[in-house]
Amino acid sequence: MRLATQISRHPRKGQSRPAPRDLRASERMRAQRTPPPEDHALYRCGCGYAFKAEVTTSVGCPHCGADQAW
Description:
This protein is an alpha+beta fold and about 70 residues long. The chain has a domain at about 35-70. Helix content is about 20%, strand content about 20%. The chain has one helix and four strands. The strands form two sheets. Strands 1-2 form a two-stranded antiparallel ribbon. Strands 3-4 form a two-stranded antiparallel sheet. Strand 1 (about 40-45) and strand 2 form a beta hairpin. It is elongated. The mean pLDDT is about 75.
């Protein structure tokens, strides 16, 4: 079997990869468009109270004081 065209690892003329600084600029633009990660979660207590609090391993219900397991 014979290939019709030869495969090369180098891009053809006119086809170039973006420069590293262009990639960093695009990453900065993406970071500006996306919201920051949330550090709060919605917890539901056995007493029926739902509340938002910081994400930690031990959170107490502000309504009844019971500890919430994650």
